[in-house]
Amino acid sequence: GPMLLTLSSFLIVVNAMLFLFNLIPAFPMDGGRILRSLLAMAMPRTRATRIAANIGRLFALGFMAYGLFNGQPFLVLIGVFVLLAASGEARLVSTQAALHGIPASRVMRTLFWRMDAGATVQQA
């Protein structure tokens, strides 16, 4: 009936809004990942990620400022999430680039000490 039509219409509008919101070029959202992919076509992935993450941070700060000044705490939370995720992703890609080509054998531990199963914490 009409209630089902109203509910369906509401869900369609909500999904369309989520789709459009997710296309904002704020890394790590989908729009930010698309931006990074486009940038990576013209430059190294590390640099593309850094640029996309910086743009994501700007959007995050904008979300938080808008949310604070307009009484929308959910938008502040989204801003915090985007800020933390963009920073984390930038660090991850930077670390991966720094470690690229280094074999695990160069950074792994090879000297181990055995202890008796009955050893105390003080003996460890």
Describe the global form. extended
Query: Helix tally?
Result: 5
Alpha-carbon Rg, integer: 23 Å
How big a fraction of the residues is strand? under 5%
Helix proportion range: over 70%
Give the integer mean of the pLDDT values.
Answer: 92
What's the β-strand tally? 0
What low-confidence regions span 5 or more consecutive residues with pLDDT below 50? Answer: none
Major sheet: size, sense and barrel closure?
A: none
Classify the secondary structure makeup into a structural class.
mainly alpha
3D architecture notes:
By secondary structure, this protein is mainly alpha-helical. The chain has a domain of 76 residues. Helix 2 packs antiparallel against helix 3. The longest helix is centred in the C-terminal third of the chain and has 27 residues. The protein is extended.
For the structure shown, list the relevant keywords:
0% strand; mainly alpha; 124 residues; 5 helices; 71% helix
Chain-wise SSE layout:
Blueprint: H1 2-22, H2 30-40, H3 45-69, H4 73-99, H5 104-107
Helix pairs in contact: 2-3, 3-4
Short description:
The chain has five helices and no strands. With 124 residues, it is mostly helical.
